[in-house]
Structures are given as C-alpha cells and as structure tokens.
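Q: What does the assembly look like in three dimensions?
Context provided by user:
Components: two
Sequences:
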Amino acid sequence: MAGRLEGKIALVTGGTAGIGAGAVRRLSAEGARVVFTGSNQSAADALVAETGALFHPHRVEDAAGWAAVIDDLLGRFGRLDIAFANAGTEGGDGSVEDIGIDGWNQIIAVNQTGVMLTVQHAIRAMAQNPQGPTGSIIVNSSMNANRAMGNFVAYSVSKAAVVALAKSAAVHCGNKGYRIRVNAILPGVVETDMIRGVIARSPDPAVARAAFEGMAPLRRMARVEEITGLVAFLASDEAAFISGSEYVIDGATTAGMMGV
Amino acid sequence: MIAGTPRRLEGRVAFVSGGLRGIGLAVAERYLAEGAEVVLSDLDDPGSDHAGQTMARLGQAASYLRADVASEADWERARDLVRERHGNLHILVNNAGIELSGPVETMALEAWRKIMAINLDGVFLGTKVFVPMMAQSGAAVRGGASIINISSIMGLVGYNEISAYNASKGAVHLFTKGIAIEFATKQMPIRANSIHPGFVLTPLLDAAFERRVDEGFAEKPSDLIEMTAATTPLGRLADPAEIAGAAFFLASEDSSYMTGAEMVVDGGWTAQ
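A: Here is the predicted structure of the complete assembly.
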C-alpha cells in the first residue's frame, strides 16, 4: 500500500475519531505526512503515537485559529497537497419543528462554515505550493445530502450544502487556472465508535444494530476502512481528472428503493 | 499502476468489452499491470493487424475474442470461453459503445436502434450472461465481484444534437442502480457501479468531433478540443488512463462498500 501518496502533505480535520482517524491511518500508510485537527487530546496522543502523524488542537469553526493551523503546517512542511474536510457533528439536531436555535447554529457552524473554512484555507495554502497551485481537497458529506432525514434537519441541510460548496470551489479553482481538485464523498452509515456507542446505549442494542445494518441493501454498515480507501483514491494522482464530483459510497442505500 | 505500489488484482479475472482501443484498452492495460488476467472483446477480426499488434503488446495474461455486444449468442460464446480458460470472472467492464449525433427529427430509426443495441442492449446482455458465474467467483474474494458500466456525463446531462447517445447512456446509469439493488437485496456478492467520463481523448471522441465539423459546428476538430478544454474547469481533456484509474478503484477491494453509485470523471465539466 505504501508509495501512492509518498511525499505528499495532508491535513485531516476532525481526525481524532471515526472516519477522520481512519483517514489519518490510511493516508499515513500510503506514504503521506499527515497533520490532523480536533479537540480530543488523549485520542490524538494515541493516534500520533500509532501513526507518526502530527496533531494540532483546533475546532474547524474557530475562524481565528485557522491561520495558526496553516502556518504551523507550512512552517514544518512548506506545502499542502491533500485536505480532508471531515469534521462534523449532529449534536443538538432535531426536526425542523423542534430544533433549537443553538443546536442549529452549532451544527451549521461545524458542518457548513467549518468545511468552508477548511476548503478556503486549503486552497490558499495549495495555491502557494512550490511547483504551482496543485492539490486535492475531499469534503466529507453524507448520503443524507441526497436523502434527507426528518429528525436531523441541520445535519441533512449542512451535508447538502457542502456538496454545492465542493462544486463551487472546484469551478473557482478552474476559473483561476489552479490544478486544485475539490470533490465530495457521500458515505452511508459507517460503523464508527460513535455509532457503536449509540447502539450500545439503546434500549435493545440488537434491534438498534439490525436497524442500522438494514438501511443498506448490502445489509451491513460500512467499515471505516471502506470509506478511507475512497479518500485515498481521490487524494492520489490517480484521480487527476476528477474534480467537482460527488461520490456516493453507501452500499446502494440511496440508489433507490429495496422493494418488497 | 503507480510505480512502487503492489499489484492489487492478482488472481482476478476481468472481461472488458470494446477492449482494443480508447478507454477499454486503457482499462485492460491497467488491470494487467495490477496482475489480473484479462479477456477483451471487440469487433476486429482476430487476424487483423490492430488486434494482433495490440494483443502481442498486452502479453500472455490477455486474450481476445471477436464478439458483437449486441448479440446474445456472442456473449454466450464469450462466457463459455472465459469459463473454459479461467473458470472465474471477478470483474466485468461493459465498455463497448458508439456515438451518434444529429437533429432528432431527421434521425433514422435504424440508427437509433443501432446505438441502443450496442450501448444499452450490450450492457444488459453482458450482465445477464455473466452474473451467474460472477456470483460464484465473487463469493470467494474480498469485496465481491464488480460490474463496471461505462456510461458518460452525457448519461447525466443533455447536450445539443446527441439525444440518442444521451438516452442510451442515461439508461445505462439507471440499469446499473437497478441491478446493484437487486444483487445486494439477494445478498449476491456482485457490486455494480457506473463510470461517467467527460471528454476523453479517444477514437470515439475523434469520430464525434469530425462529425460535428462536417455538421458545421467548427472549422476543424482541434478547434473543438480547444473549446472543450476551455470549458472544462481542469482546463484539458482526459487521457484514457485517467478513466482506467476509476475503473481500477471499482475493481479493487477498496471499493467494497460502493455499489449502485456513479463515478463522474470529467474535470469538473458537470459541476458548473
């Protein structure tokens, strides 16, 4: 597996858990030097020890803190090739009828504004790369960008918004003559520690697990590694003609209806 | 493949229709470089210079048969040959296709039926004939077997005076989603996805651009290539090898959770 991303410098937001931590592992394994952000210091310490990646404590919605993230990264490596805008939340979400303004604002701040800030700062950094403006930016959306959930209005809205953000950024880079690619991935349900926690805390874990597994025609959740393989592909030079795309990876969950 | 990386399709058998040129050839080359055995089909006589030279270059792990994708009997012959020679099929790339342009009101029904027969019937027949074998072969490998249907961005958006091509490629897009749900629902170990190339430097694009020059859309084909590059965010057309990269991803274990999906590879053309 080593080699495909040899010599590349990567940034992963929300890298301390779930798909983000998986991406830190996968990108590192393929040869990239990875800087990741987040706020769980103890989880970060373990991942740093495991992968040799670097941790910069930062929340994506903290606009003022972005300069330090990028300065630190460029100061150390002098370039940025890959950015995975992954950090996301669903805490405080609800239906459009019930959601509180604080919950709405926090989810939009992280999932939407945080992704915008990630893409913005990544493009600014990549535009200064020594061989000219090159790079690959991957936005972690969700299959719920295309199929909204009634009880997660802010999550559904923000995940749809960042698909348009990725496309706008891709077109902008084209307008500027940058060879910076921007794409979105739209995963289905992934068996992260967060989902395992939700299952474990539910009144009947077996029923909860069956419900999550039954969402996809494939009849199972994705493993984290099954998502990070797509991240690595889009990050690599193999995807050199791919920009402005949205790749669904959901075991056919949103391909249509399973029927009866 | 990328130098220094391991071969990731060792032990896999792939079938690529339309394999002697353009995207099909690039896909075959990539799969061979990753260690797969590849059977190619196309319309060329096996004794022709082009077929002979191409197969000599591809080497021992590749084999060729002449088959018309619109013929069910030809597909059955292809399946029998694959079964006899390899006993398995893990990867099916339904790639063969033709283009057709012109105003709808003067389009001959015969021409319409021909493009549907090749671009759409061909995908259906290849799938139909190989699915039983792929269900068996897929059970034995991580990530299952993989059907990769080459649609087009023209299967997602309309374009002036190529309505029949639009219709054929749009049908491939949804046929793929239908079979993906069907296989997954039955727990058959076959994934199905479509690739939607944008403008790729292939013989098919050359033919289409020459026709559009004849139709008065431009003075010469190179003008159309420049205009197309200028309207593509990445500022250029694709090399067939760049489509093969996506076809490799879908063939590999890395895409084990991807089914019923589409991979657009168009340099941002449809994003704007």
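Follow-up: The first strand of chain A starts at residue 9 and ends at 12.
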